[in-house]
Amino acid sequence: MSPTSQAPRLAPLQPPYEPDVAAMLAKWMPPNSSAEPLRLFRTLARNNDLAGRMRPLGAGILGAGASIAPQLREVAIHRTCALTRNEYEWGVHAVAFGKPLGLTNEQLRSTVLGSWTDECWEPEQAIVFRAADELHRTSTISEELWAELGARFDERQIIELIVTVGWYHVIAYICNGLSVEAEEWAPGFPRRTL
Asked: Residue 31's Cα: distance from chain center in Å?
């Protein structure tokens, strides 16, 4: 059973929200959004102080000041979510970021069931995918991959890539550890076909 198919261990907060919680949730959502805040955010709101400290890093990774191209960032995020079995966040990112940024169904499928060597990946995308794999498996980057990263990315981008992969490990611990329930509109992981 996938962690997201279990009953949530902590139910997300429901409206009406206390004013400080409503203000925090508004910061986590896109400006002027009329959508209900994500279940992950409403679960984190059970510890509003911690959520407030987490938001700047999450927003910085996804924001306009990020040094990694958004599509490459999404390759790292989707692969990290797949490796950590974080189906909740993988599905949210597939709808909110991956598809709108141009990741194909084949690429999204590959993040879960494939490899950085799959033909669907451009060279930079494959390197980012491989970095997510190595960081997950060994908590480091091999000398060979370090040289490849250095040939394509500057120091700032490499640091940001490492932090992004680490951040989505934290998000996986939260989603999986608390069994955050999937959003109705978010897809689950693709499945192998016979």
From this structure: 20
Q: Tokens in use for 41? A: 């955010």
Domain ranges of the chain: 12-62, 70-177
* pLDDT tens across the length of the chain (194 residues): 344 468 999 999 999 999 999 999 999 998 888 889 999 999 999 999 999 999 999 999 999 889 999 999 999 999 999 999 999 999 999 999 999 999 999 999 999 999 999 999 999 999 999 999 999 999 999 999 999 999 999 999 999 999 999 999 999 999 999 999 999 999 999 998 76
Of 50, 57, 86, residue with least CA distance to 164: 57
Assess contact for 79 and 132: CB atoms under 8 A: yes
Q: CATH number of the domain at 70-177, please?
A: 1.20.1290.10
Q: Which of 35-69 are b and which e, b meaning 16 or more Cβ less than 10 Å from the residue's Cβ?
A: eebbbbbbbbbeebeebbebeeebeebbeeebebe
Q: How many CA atoms lie within 13 A of 33 on its CB side?
A: 13
Say if CB 181 and CB 39 are below 8 A apart. yes
Beta strands in 30-173 (DSSP E): none
